[in-house]
Task: structure prediction
Amino acid sequence: MKRYDVVSIFPDMFDALTGYGVTGRGRDKGDYELVVWNPRDFSSDQRRTVDDRPFGGGAGMVMMAEPIVRSIRAAKARQKSCGVGDPKTVALTPAGVPLTQRLAKTLTAMDGLILLAGRYEGIDQRVFDLEVDLEVSVGDYVVSGGELPAMVLLDSLIRLIPGVLNDDKSIVEESHSDGLLEYPQYTRPEVFEGLSVPKVLLSGNHKEIDDWKKKEALEKTKFVRPDLLEAKPG
Ligand code: 9D3
Result:
């Protein structure tokens, strides 16, 4: 069983991950566990404050170091109590390294992970200095907080845990078409509003079908994401 701890002031958002689809069933089956720590529970004032104004000025509020550091340390203690030797802490930030399938494969190999999802304009730098091993971004666009990015990262890790995907065929196909975009897919009926399924897919000739899928995937990739083909042999 993989152990995931998340630090977030919106714990209920993670029900979207644990309550649905393969990530929901994976949790029910005990493929992984997810515990969310709320920095408000580690705040030192009556109002449960977790943010304050930035030194030096600037727009918006910054998340305070103390409630976050205390949350991360509680998460680390829990991970160690579960036998995770040296749990790594990953912060989701717009300035992180881009999430890729390669990074997902690296992180899914860890027994446990702690993820930090921030809100407001940022997080006090001393949190990173003291407790964070890696910053990860989910792409060059702005969202309102780290929770959705944390769920994107978690989903990409969880579906790589052996047994989470019910069939192992999709994993084989994934590695097969590695780095290419998807070929077009069809199901019944054979004709829909005058549009027919390509004949080759009904031919039963598996070699021809495989060649067609490869050709379509390559074509689509050349057109939409030529950058994916740049550094690729074959
Ligand atoms: C200084 C201007 N903004 C940085 C681009 C401030 C800011 C905006 C949004 C700071 C944090 C956020 C909230 N976003 C995330 O926490 C985040 C994120 C993202 O916005 N895009 C891509 N990946 C990620 S991972 C976490």
In short: DSSP finds nine helices and ten strands in the chain.
